[in-house]
Zinc-dependent metalloprotease
Amino acid sequence: MNLYRSARAVAGASGSDGEAIDWRSAADAAKAATDPGSVALEPGEAEAYARDVREARAAVRTVSGAEFDVPETVEIQNRHHWIDANVATFERVMGTLEAHTDVFPGVARTINTGTMAVLLGFLGRNVLGQYDPLLLADTPDDDHALYFVRPNILHAAETLDVDPDRFRRWIAFHEVTHAAEFGAAPWLSTHLETRMEDGITALSAGSFDRNAFRELDAAMTVVEGYAELLMDHAFDDEYADLRRKLDARRQGRGPLQTLFRRLLGLGLKQRQYERGKSFFEGVVTASDLETASRVWDQPENLPSQDELDAPRLWLRRVDR
């Protein structure tokens, strides 16, 4: 980790008029401030990752009844690899905002670049695994990706005092459940992209599209909640202890990390987990897993904000 090199990368931020962030400098600064960690795999470790993904796909297919693929290549990354892979995603999302803004002066661009570098570095040190549907990707061939950040997985397993192989397998199952969702609902990527673009476009024009953000929040709550539902049925081991230890770890974060998590909306993501899981538990209790999967039949089947807190309302609507 080299904080001087990180600061120098931010100070040298450049970019053409209208670019809010120098993305290359942001990535360079994030990596300079972040220990990459090791991807020197132990014998058989690469096959263990691949086996976990294959077995997760088979189990989730059986439970959900959905046909879906996972990426051909499972990427085992260090923290720098993750930053490089995700800076393009951030750039695509922010590009919608930049397209509607006036010219950013150099000082503002430097501040924006520094802020993004800090956030990329924080995420790079904390993300364990990621199913990336590559929203807003320019080329249709780049349809999805699956990443595992090995040094973060090993560090978290050690911190939580859990078996690293079991922990890695749990992460694999969780990310594969997300692949199942996007495979079962080919319209989901477009739905999320449209809501993001509508919300950002409104913000850039000085207004707030409440409906766009409410619909985006509802969709992401369903994505997280359904993943938890599939995990409950597909994972071949109890994992309540893993969830409990992870939650305790989050609660024990210092004030700076807590601030970053709030800035990044990670507290919102935890609420989406809990609210989405409660919604699907209510659906399955009143009906069954097959009925729960009807959320992916069409965009109109996504629950509203009110229905998320009253699953029987959703059941009455979709069962008409």
